Automatic annotation (TrEMBL):
GO terms for molecular function: dioxygenase activity. SUPFAM superfamilies: Glyoxalase/Bleomycin resistance protein/Dihydroxybiphenyl dioxygenase. InterPro entries: Glyas_Bleomycin-R_OHBP_Dase (IPR029068), Glyas_Fos-R_dOase_dom (IPR004360). Pfam families: Glyoxalase. Residues 5-118 form the Glyoxalase/fosfomycin resistance/dioxygenase domain. The keyword Kinase does not apply. It comes from the Bacteria. Keywords: Dioxygenase, Oxidoreductase. The keyword Oxidoreductase applies. This is Glyoxalase/bleomycin resistance/extradiol dioxygenase family protein.
Amino acid sequence: MKLRMELFVKNIEKSMEFYSNVLGFSLPKDINKKYVPVRKDDVVLGLGEMKNLLKNHPLKATEGHQIGLGVEIVLEVEDVKAIYDKVVAKEYPIHTKLTKRPWGLEDFRIIDPDGYYLRITSSTSND
């Protein structure tokens, strides 16, 4: 089994910029502005514009409601410090700074342009 997530966003251009330039995901060669799968290693996130969902679609956020509420997207990486340094260098806002956790992980948290909550993490068991 594999997991692929689809994130419905307000502005697909802004999301493509964030996932490719801030987090290092690759964009497909042919870009369809209605749906763009971004990829990094084994992770695929499908980006689709919220406006393309039917009016009564259950995934469509209503005006004033937070997108992604109750969901944390966890990206496991080899070197969280390197990713953290790249995100900081891009001057992207950090929600929770890089922290070593007592359960053997090191992580930081950011919020994407649409409000999706991302935790980027690595194991510290090799330290």
